[in-house]
Every structure is written in structure tokens, then in C-alpha cells.
Design a protein that fits this description.
It contains 6 helices and no strands. The protein is mainly alpha-helical. The chain has one domain (2-116): Serine Threonine Protein Phosphatase 5, Tetratricopeptide repeat, CATH 1.25.40. Helix 2 (11-28) runs parallel beside helix 4 (54-69) and helix 3 runs antiparallel to helix 4 (54-69). The chain is flat, with a radius of gyration of 14 Å.
């Protein structure tokens, strides 16, 4: 799949491929590979589309999920909180994307609280 991602021409397509690759590794518990692909995805999309582009923000949710799975709960929250602010401003407090981001942050906060015990 990585070879496919590298052959794709559009940055959006490459980003989606890398994001799905990171999620697949995350589900398999391969956190180092998930982290690498999530970082590559965010770096590519930020460079090509900008940090405020919807696809770039979408990739950041995966990046935050991988960070949290790696025990980097503060970093995951630092990634997700600006997403919540942006999603609330852009889509409203009751939108699905905003609610999903709130749930994601709640999960990260719960993991962080459990880790600190």
C-alpha cells in the first residue's frame, strides 16, 4: 500500500492513502509504523494543502489517535484541541464533525487520566 501511496499523483490521494495505512497499522498494534505514516501524511498535506485545509485537519485526527495510542496523551490533546476550535467555528457546536472531535478529546483525556494514576 505504501508503494501505491507514493505512486499517486494528487497530494489529497497520497494523504488519504497514508492516513489509511497509519490506521491499519494502528489497528494491528504496529505503533511505530502507524506513527511514521501519520507523520508523513500530516507533513505532506500541510505542505501541499496548508494546515487549515479540511483534508489536513482530517489527517490530524489520525495523527492524534496514534499519538494517544503511543501514550503521548498530552501531544494528542495538543493536536486535537485546535481541531475542535476550528470545527466549532466552521461547522457549529452541534455538527457531527464537532461532536466527533469532542468525543475524541474526551477519549484522550480519559486515557491520560488512567495513565497518570
Amino acid at each position: 500500500m505504501l508503494a501505491t501511496a507514493e505512486r499517486l499523483q494528487r497530494p489529497v490521494d497520497q494523504g488519504y492513502a497514508l492516513r489509511h495505512l497509519a490506521q491499519a497499522h494502528l489497528r494491528r498494534g504496529e505503533l511505530a509504523l502507524a506513527w511514521k505514516h501519520a507523520n508523513d501524511c500530516v507533513e505532506l498535506l500541510d505542505e501541499e494543502l496548508g494546515k487549515d485545509h479540511g483534508v489536513s485537519r482530517y489527517a490530524r485526527t489520525t495523527w492524534a489517535e496514534v499519538a494517544s495510542a503511543r501514550g503521548m496523551h498530552k501531544e494528542a490533546l495538543d493536536i486535537a484541541r485546535p481541531l475542535l476550535e476550528r470545527n466549532t467555528d466552521k461547522y457549529g457546536a452541534k455538527s457531527r464533525i464537532t461532536r466527533d472531535t469532542q468525543k475524541l478529546i474526551a477519549r484522550f483525556e480519559a486515557r491520560r487520566a488512567r495513565a497518570e494514576k
